[in-house]
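Dear all,

This email documents one entry for the complex benchmark we are building for the journal club exercise. For each entry we list the sequence lines for every component of the assembly. Then comes the predicted three-dimensional structure of the complex as a token string, followed by one or two observations. Please use this as the template for your own entries, and keep the labels exactly as they appear.
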Amino acid sequence: MTSTSGNRETQSMLLNIGPSHPAMHGVIRLITELEGETVVKVEAEIGYLHRAFEKSCEESSWTQSIPYTDRLNYVSPLINNFGYCGAVEKLLGIELTERCKYIRVIMSEVSRITDHLTCIAASAMELGAMTAFLYLMKAREYLYDIVEEVTGARLTIAYGRIGGVKGDLPAGMEARLEEALRKTEKEIEEVNLLLTRNRIWVDRTRDVGILTKDNAISYAITGPLARSAGINYDVRKAFPYLVYDRVDFDVPLGEQGDNYDRYMVRMEEMRQSIRIIRQCMKDIPDGSVNTDWARDAIKSYDLVDQAKMGETAGLVNVISTVEPTLEGSERPYHQRIMSKDKRVVLPNKGDTYGNIEGLMNHFKIVMDAHGIRPPKGDTYFAVEGANGELGFYVVSDGKDRPYRVRCRPPCFFGMAGLHTMLEGYMVADIVATFGSINMIAGELDR
Amino acid sequence: MEELPSEGPGFFTSKLEHMVGWARRYSIFVYPFVTACCGMEYMSAASGHYDMDRFGAGLPRFSPRQADVLLVVGTISQKIAPILRRIYDQMCEPKWVVAFGVCTCTGGFYDNYATVQGIDTILPVDIYIPGCPPRPEAVLDGLVKLQTKIENQRQVLLRKP
């Protein structure tokens, strides 16, 4: 492409941005065509983090696929876990326990906040706002502490189980979660003061990278990107799952879909998530953990349960009663958070050792080549991930391994529509816009 | 890559080497080659709570020409492997490589067609930090081990042009 301005002939230039570029995060290659400083055309090359997620799932059992889903969107792994488990549960027709639903909602929202914190932090850092980055990372650590306490890991947690979750919320969680939320809120407000009316930030993001409503719809973009363009679509409201229909929250909408709107939508969503968590902590059924292990002697199975959930603080000083019978195998924790469905949940040890049905049930779930076997068929289940509609399409041929696990990664569609947000703007705006769409290579390339 | 002939480890040479090692140890400029999940833990390790800056490795340089340590963070797929090798080649001597996370150490649980089974198949690696992802404490431990290695190794000061 050539054009003449005055007496000079200019030629468009091809510029490669990525896959490892100083000013950008993530492994992606943007092939840009420039006319001076203006971007004429952008083409994105993806696939640098292809890790064969779908193939790996086909080679492992239904339960073994859960850790692979952690690493799709590694900024909010809990939502991925629950999305996949939800799909398999839908295929099996399992109803979760009430407490488990609440736990899933609480942990999903904690995850959503960490994701938005990371997105805003990274995009602010790329525009030079290092201070905001440090404050937001600080807030994220408070939430990671909570995640670690509940799940046992900071990042790749594998907390979801088909039919439930790995473990109950630890004792005294309510107070510590509230403390973490309070601190996080404070940091978010701090960043709000730093960025929202900051002249440089506003100049770099206002009217830059506009995603029109039509484009958002035609590229199937969902999540904060679409909502910032004014599309009122949130899976939590449109197709309520778990207990989202019982909690009260607002879906923030933007007006024109520029970078600034996306930033504002994410900020507001974090506040709404905090609101959801507070409501859930209030409403969660059977909230108190029923052992007072500071004073009384506790049952040995409670001791084991607590140790499994990582509540080891002070456990050496606890007196426990040892029972030679199988009375201890009722596992009160387990029953609150796991569905009662025998196809997916292990029977209690009393049944396993006490009667043949229980033993067979245990065997059918644990042994290789038996395992969890959803009926033949396929289903699609979507949750609202941090980037938008995160869907899992699972196909079962009645065996112990998934026939196919297809993931609908929300940021893939954002990447497909990326060129409409970049073309016509300046080279420097690529960094700002790219940061605001929150591309996560793990779920983009799978 | 041949060193200048020396008179053997005399008093001043060994003292100078010691000094250079000490200086190099605390002035690490890191190039984080972040591809995947481990990047989140790298961000945690680098910012306030864990503060890699305490160990003199606080300033990441996003250009291979300015960096001493290549921190390979996250899964290396077959598609990105040549780019990683090219970045390593662009770095100036002396340089070190840290394999951050189990995917870079051995391929981790991605034992499939797409993933490089350990970056030591394409690069020389100095320190391995296992974990999926490693905790920030593990990262700092690996960093300190790397510093010890840098300090105690034979320091190459001059090269024939």
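Observations: Chain A has three domains: 2-45, 63-287+374-445, 298-366. Chain A has 19 helices and twelve strands.
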